[in-house]
Amino acid sequence: MRYGLARIRPFLIITALATLAGCATSPQERKAEAQQHRAAVLNAQLGIDYMQTGNLKLADEKLKRALSQDPNSSVVRNAYALLMQRLGRNDEAEENFSKAVALKPNDGDVHNNFGVFLCEQEHYTRAYAQFKDAWSNPLYNTPEYAYANAGVCAVRQGDKKLAEQRFEQALKVQPGFAPALYQLAKLASEQGDNQKADAYLGRITGEARYTPDILALCLKVKREVGDMNGAADCARDLYRMFPNSPQARALLQNQ
């Protein structure tokens, strides 16, 4: 996942099964409706999987099939909105996010994803409302994602103080949450406080440490604080794990 400021992406995409609902009256009709819904959700998940691997053509085919099977599924509408967002078809993305929210207003993941989209369009007030709807929902299992996305959105808007507050709120929910720690480290580094940035980065553990953005920032911060061994470790991991990343290429060009 990317946590950069230039372009926000949803930190989490969850396509849980939507609650079955409909107007079928007979057992046969209810069974057929349930089967259609399950098929639609399966195709929506396949569409998400294809989208994540970059196969947008197959993603589009699966998601259009899902829409034809159950146009009243929040899961399907959310998935199709994400594809439209990826393709830059923003009117269709907003339409489908809006329908997904209307179909399942208590789905925190839909609110979170819609907020990310609105922030990309610089509709900041509307974006914050969606993030708040997500983290305020006691049934939303991962409010740290909504807080962190709201923080990234605040950075884009130029409000670094608010951004720090949102990232800290994410950490109150999940103390080791890597996206929030990375963003706080980046803000601290930009403000010249590399000791503080190094401390934030030091709290990122395990596999979460290994992203191009985190390793590139780690390299920069370690150099600034004079930890050349630590800088060498970060550079080595960046080259070894992400040799074709823009961060690794930039490092090579600057050497």
TrEMBL record:
TPR repeats lie at residues 40-73, 74-107, 144-177. Residues 1-21 form the signal peptide. The keyword Repeat applies. Keywords: Repeat, Signal, TPR repeat. It holds the Pfam family TPR_19. NCBIfam families: type_IV_pilW. This is Type IV pilus biogenesis/stability protein PilW.
